[in-house]
Amino acid sequence: MRIDKRKNNELRSVTVRTKYLKHAHGSCLIEMGDTKVVCSATVEEKVPFFCKEEKKGWITAEYGMLPASCSERIVREAAKGKLSGRTQEIQRLIGRSIRSVVDLKKLGERTIWLDADVIQGDGGTRTASITGCYIALKHAIKKLIEDGLLAKDPVRDSVAAVSVGVVRGKPMLDLCYEEDSKAEVDMNIVMTGSGKLVEVQGTAEGKPFSEAALKQLIQLGKKGIRELTGIQKKHV
Amino acid sequence: MRIDKRKNNELRSVTVRTKYLKHAHGSCLIEMGDTKVVCSATVEEKVPFFCKEEKKGWITAEYGMLPASCSERIVREAAKGKLSGRTQEIQRLIGRSIRSVVDLKKLGERTIWLDADVIQGDGGTRTASITGCYIALKHAIKKLIEDGLLAKDPVRDSVAAVSVGVVRGKPMLDLCYEEDSKAEVDMNIVMTGSGKLVEVQGTAEGKPFSEAALKQLIQLGKKGIRELTGIQKKHV
Amino acid sequence: MRIDKRKNNELRSVTVRTKYLKHAHGSCLIEMGDTKVVCSATVEEKVPFFCKEEKKGWITAEYGMLPASCSERIVREAAKGKLSGRTQEIQRLIGRSIRSVVDLKKLGERTIWLDADVIQGDGGTRTASITGCYIALKHAIKKLIEDGLLAKDPVRDSVAAVSVGVVRGKPMLDLCYEEDSKAEVDMNIVMTGSGKLVEVQGTAEGKPFSEAALKQLIQLGKKGIRELTGIQKKHV
Amino acid sequence: MRIDKRKNNELRSVTVRTKYLKHAHGSCLIEMGDTKVVCSATVEEKVPFFCKEEKKGWITAEYGMLPASCSERIVREAAKGKLSGRTQEIQRLIGRSIRSVVDLKKLGERTIWLDADVIQGDGGTRTASITGCYIALKHAIKKLIEDGLLAKDPVRDSVAAVSVGVVRGKPMLDLCYEEDSKAEVDMNIVMTGSGKLVEVQGTAEGKPFSEAALKQLIQLGKKGIRELTGIQKKHV
Amino acid sequence: MRIDKRKNNELRSVTVRTKYLKHAHGSCLIEMGDTKVVCSATVEEKVPFFCKEEKKGWITAEYGMLPASCSERIVREAAKGKLSGRTQEIQRLIGRSIRSVVDLKKLGERTIWLDADVIQGDGGTRTASITGCYIALKHAIKKLIEDGLLAKDPVRDSVAAVSVGVVRGKPMLDLCYEEDSKAEVDMNIVMTGSGKLVEVQGTAEGKPFSEAALKQLIQLGKKGIRELTGIQKKHV
Amino acid sequence: MRIDKRKNNELRSVTVRTKYLKHAHGSCLIEMGDTKVVCSATVEEKVPFFCKEEKKGWITAEYGMLPASCSERIVREAAKGKLSGRTQEIQRLIGRSIRSVVDLKKLGERTIWLDADVIQGDGGTRTASITGCYIALKHAIKKLIEDGLLAKDPVRDSVAAVSVGVVRGKPMLDLCYEEDSKAEVDMNIVMTGSGKLVEVQGTAEGKPFSEAALKQLIQLGKKGIRELTGIQKKHV
Predict the structure, then answer these.
(1) Which of E 91-130 lie inside 8 A of D, CB atoms?
(2) With b meaning 16 or more CB within 10 Å and e meaning fewer, what string describes B193-206?
(3) What pTM does this model have?
(4) Quick one: which of B148, C31, C189, F209 has the fewest CB in 10 Å?
(5) Strand partners, D190
(6) Which residues 164-183 on chain F approach chain E with CB closer than 8 angstroms?
(7) Crossing angle for the helix pair E85-99 and E125-146, to the nearest 10 degrees
(8) ipTM value of the model?
C-alpha cells in the first residue's frame, strides 16, 4: 500500500483553477495532491532573433520555487545570482514539451512566456508544470483569437506529463516526494493527447534497470496521461 | 471619487488565510484588494556570525514577485542574476520593521526567515508584506512555544504597514497601483499596534510637499494601521 | 554635551571646494566635519530609452566609498562584483532628490551623471552627497549655458539634506558616526531651499518612536537645511 | 545511405588513446568519427560535506567545449561568466551515469573529478564523454590500487553511452552532427556492460513519436553499446 | 646541469602539427617539451564598434587551461564564473603581440579570434601560445586569400615568444615549470622575425635584478626566438 | 618641445601630502602633474591561508578610478560587476612591486592592504600608485612599530616607479595622458632606491622597437626614479 493509500496505478487528486491571475493572458493554479503550481502564459509581441528569418513565433518557459515551498527552505536563486542546473533542465523541458504541440509558424511573430512557479512542492513539480502550462497556453491562445490577433488556433494536440518510478521494486504512477526520494528508477513521461511520446527521461537512481521495467513504466505513464488529458479538456 | 469607489480614508478589502503553506513554521496569504502576497516564516536553528557574540537571534526577510504578477511581465531576478535595488530596499524594510517589535535576545540563537512573495500585485505590496509577515511570524513563534523550543513569546507588540499618498491634491489611504502611479507624494508608514512609528518613508514624486501634508498623511496612515491591527489580532 | 562639543541643534563645520576635478562638467569636494565627499556632475548627450518618447533629459546618481574611508576597511564593491543594498538605496535617494528640483523637459535630451565618492566617512555621507551633488549640478548647468548648449537654467529650486536623530533621548542635528551608531531614531531629511519636503526617511533603530519625536526631528532638520542652503548659495 | 556511407546500425570508427595526459590519475583521448574528447579522472583526497556523514566517496563531472571545436566558434563560458543550461545538463548526466556503476562506499572518502573537454565536435559529444570517462576512471582506480590507497576495485560494471535517432523516418545509430540536426527523434542511451539501462533520454524534435519507435531505438542503442563495451575492455 | 639535461641556452624540443582542427580557419597543436597548446584562428566577418570608423579589422585572443592540464587540477573559470587576472593578462598579451605584426587596415573589416587552449602545461604556456597563434593566423590568412576574400597578406613580419629567467643565479632559456617556480627573475620576451622587440616583461620574484642581468636575458631570448622563427617558417 | 613645456628627461611636478586619511594606518595623496592618487595602507591582523604555513605576512593591492577622474566618464566596475583586465593587471603589479622590498617573514602574520584610488588621471596612474603606496606602507609600518606591534622595520629598500616611452621618435620620461596615447613604445619601470630593477614592462604600440631604444628608455627611467626616491625620503 502506498503512503497516501493510493493504488500503484492511481494519480493523486488533481484540481485546476483557471484564470487564477488577473494580468496574464492565460493562467491556472494546478494542484496534484500537495503539489501546487501557478502556471501562466504571457504574450509578447516580438520574437527572439533566431525566429525572425523564419517569420515564426516562439514559446519559452521559466520555472521557480518559492523558498518555503518545500520541507527545507530553499535559497532563492535570485539571491544566489544564478539558476541551478536543475532549474535550467526543467525550464528547457517545459518549453520543448509545449512547443512540440504548437505550429510556431501559425502562432505568428510573437513570444509566449510560460511561467511555472511552485507554491508548494510534494514531488512531480515539473510534470505538473507541463500539464498546467498547456492549460494556461490554451487560455492565452483563446484570448488572442478573441482579440482578433490570431485567426486560427496553432495548437495541434494537447500535451501532459506525469512521473512514474520503481519504488521498493514496484512500478508506481505519480510519485509524491517521499516515494520519489526512495525510488530506484525515476521517469518523467511527456505525452500528447493522441498518445504519442514527446519526452521520455528515465534515470536509474543507484541501480540500473531492465528493458522490461522501462516498458511497464511507459504503460503506467500512458494511463496517467490519459486521465490528465481528460482533466485538461474540461479546463480549456 | 476613487477608481474603485472607496472613500479617501478607506482601506481596500483585506482577507487573510493563515496556514497557507504546509511546510513553513508559519504562513499566510494576505490579500488587500487585488494585491496578493504569500508570507511565510521559517525557523533555522542557527544565527549569522554577528549574532553569536551577543547570543541573540535574528530575523531576516526576502521578497520577490512572480513574473506574471503585474500588468507587464517582470523579468525574473533569478534569470537576471541579481536583485534590483528596489527588491533590496523592500527586503531591508520588512526585516527592520519586524525586528523592531521582537526581543532578539528572547528569541534565542535561531534565525527566522520571512519570505514575502507577490502572487499578484496592485500597489502596496511592501506594506502588505509587512502586515502579513507579522502574522506568519506569530504563527511560527506559537509553533516554537508548542514544540517546547521557546519558553516565552519574544514579540513585544504587533506591527503593520500601509501606504498613503497625495493623488490629484488629495491625501488618500492604501493606494492601488493606478493611484500610486499618479501620486504626487508617496509614503509608506510602519506602525506598532500601540501606535508608535517604526518607519516613515515619504517621497515627493516630482513635486516637493509641505509639512502640513506630511501631518495629514501620518493621520491617514494611523487610521489604516489601527484597522489592520484589528485584522491581525483575529489571525494570530 | 555632544562628543565634539556641538550644541544639539548645531551643524558640523562645512567647507566646499568647487571645481575640484579638471574633467567633470561640475564638481566639488564637500566636507562636513570629518566626512569628505567628492561630488561631480558629468553631462552625456544621450538619454535612457524611457526618456526618448517624452523628449526629456535624465539625472542619475552613483555612490561609492573608498576602501580606507572608514574605521574598518571596506571591501570594494567592484571586487565583490555587486553593489550592496545600502549603496543602491543611497544612489536612488540622491538621484530622486536632485531630480525633484529639476525640470527634465527643459534640461533637453541629455543625461547628467552625478557621482558621489566618499573619501572619508564620519556619518551623514548620503546627506552630504545630496548637498554636494546639487552644487556640482549647478556648475554643470552653468557650463552648458556658457557653451550655448542650453538656453535656460532648468533648476527650479535648490535642494539639500541633513541627518537628524534621537541619541540618548535627545533630538540632535547632523549626527557624526559615533552618534549615529548609538541613535534610537535615525532620520534623513531632504528639503528644498524654499522649505518644502522632498524625502523624509525615519527609522526606529530598536525602539519605535512617537509622532511628537517625528515633529521635533523635522524642525531640527529644517534649521540645518536652512543653513546648508545658505552655504550652497555662496558656491553656485 | 548515410552521409558517411555507414549502415543505419553502424557506429563511427572509434579510437581510444589512453594515458593522454601526464598529470591526471587517469585519462584518454576518445575519438568517434570527427568527435574528439579528452577525458580525465583526477583524485582529490576529500569529499563534499553531504558525503561525510555516510563516509562515502563522490564522483562528479565537468564538461566543456573548446571555442574552435565546432563549425561556428563557440563563445567561452568562462568569458560569459556562466555555464549554459546545456553544459549543466551534460555534466549532471555524465556524473550520474558513472556513479551508477561505482560503489561509493568502497571508493573511500575521496572525490574523483571527471573532466570531459571537447577538442572537436561532430555530434554525440555527451555520449562519447561518458564512454571515455569510464576508461579514465578505471585508470585512476588502477593507480589508486597500485599506490596502495585502495584495496579493492569499487567499480561494479562498465558503462557506455551512444546516441540514436530517427532521421528521415529511419532509426539510426550514432548520429553525426549533420544527422543530429535533422533528426525527428533524438535519444541518448546509457547502458551498463551487462545490458541494464542507466539513462534513457528521448526527445521529439518537432514531432511526437510512437512507442514502437522507442522500442526500435532502444534495440539499436543496445547494439552500439555492446560494441563500445568491447572497445572499453581493451583499454582498461 | 638543467633538470631535463638541456644547456642553459637550449630550447626544449618543439613540434608543430598544423591543421589540427577541422573547423577553424587556421590551427595547430604546438608542443614545447611537455607544454601542449591547441592554437586556432577563426574569422568572423564583422568588427567591434571601435574599428568601424577606421574601417579596419581586429584581432583578439582568448586563453584557457584544461582542468587536468597541470599537476594540481585547476578549477574551471567557466564554473567560477569569472576570468582570473592571470588569464586576462595573458589574453591581452597574445592579442597585442599578434596585432603588432599585422596591418589591420589591410585585413579588412573582419575579426580574427585567436584561441589558445592549454591541453597540458609545463611552463611557458603564454609564450607557446603566441608562437602557435602566429602559425594559426597565417593559415587563416592563407585560406582567406585562397577563398578570394583577401587580396594581399596583411602580415608584415613573423612574431614568436619565449620565456627566460635567472635560476639559481644562472640565466636560462625556455624554463619548464619546475625551473620557473624557483626562478629569481622571470621574463617573457616577444620578438619579430626581423629581431625587433614587441614586449619585454621582466619581473623580480623576490629579489630585484641588475641592468646587466636584463641585458643577458634579452640576448638569451633573442637566440631562442631566432630558432622559433625558423620552425615557424616551416609550418606556414 | 613637450605639450607642457617639459624637457624630454624631466618629471612632472610631484607633491605628496601624507596622513591624508584619518582612519588608515598610513596614507598619502600623491600628485604628479594632474594625476592625483589617494594611497593608503591598512593593517589587518590575519593572513590568507597560503601564508599560514610559512608564518609570514602578506601585502596585497587594490586599484580603482573615480568615474569622473578622466576626460570621458568611466563606468564604475562595481556597477559592471567585474574588474577589468587592466585593473587586475595594475593591482597585481602594485602588490608585486611593494612586496619585492619587504621581508614578509619579518612583517609577522598580518596583511597590509594597499589601496590606490585615482581621484584624477592624466597618465602614469599605475606608476604614481606604486610610488605613493610605498610612502603609505612606510607610515603604516611606523605606526605598527610605535604601537609596539612590530619590533623592526621589515622594509629592505625603497621602491618607486615611472613611465617612459617613445613619442614621435623621441624617448621621453613620465608621459602625460596625451603623450601616452600617441606613444610608439610605452614602458613602465619599477626600481628600488638602490637602483635594482623590480619590473620592466615594455610594449610596442603598433611598431616593434630595437634593443637600443630599450636601453635608452631604461636610462631615462633610472633618472626619474632617482628623483622620486629623493622625494619619497622626505615623506617617510
Answers:
(1) 113, 115, 117, 119-120, 122
(2) beebbbbbbbbbbe
(3) 0.90
(4) B148
(5) D161, D199
(6) none
(7) 40
(8) 0.93
